[in-house]
Design a protein that fits this description.
60 residues; alpha+beta; Double Stranded RNA Binding Domain; three-stranded antiparallel beta sheet; 27% strand
Length: 60
């Protein structure tokens, strides 16, 4: 089963999104947005940014 983005309204009335894996586990979440449309655009931005993104190790 594929993952999905969920857009929801938090307790303070702001809109957020979370990315859930196929097993239902939350694997990423977004910041608070003023509008539902902005939260949906945040989902699209994550999709665009992750397409073909590489995984790199960062050492401290």
């Amino acid at each position: 089963m594929a993952g999905k983005f969920e857009v929801y309204q938090d307790r303070s009335g702001k809109y957020r999104f979370r990315l859930k894996a196929g097993n239902g586990e939350v694997v990423a979440s977004g910041e608070a947005y003023e509008t539902k449309a902005s939260a949906k655009e945040g989902c699209e931005a994550v999709k665009r940014a992750s397409d073909g993104a590489s995984v790199v190790e960062v050492e401290s």
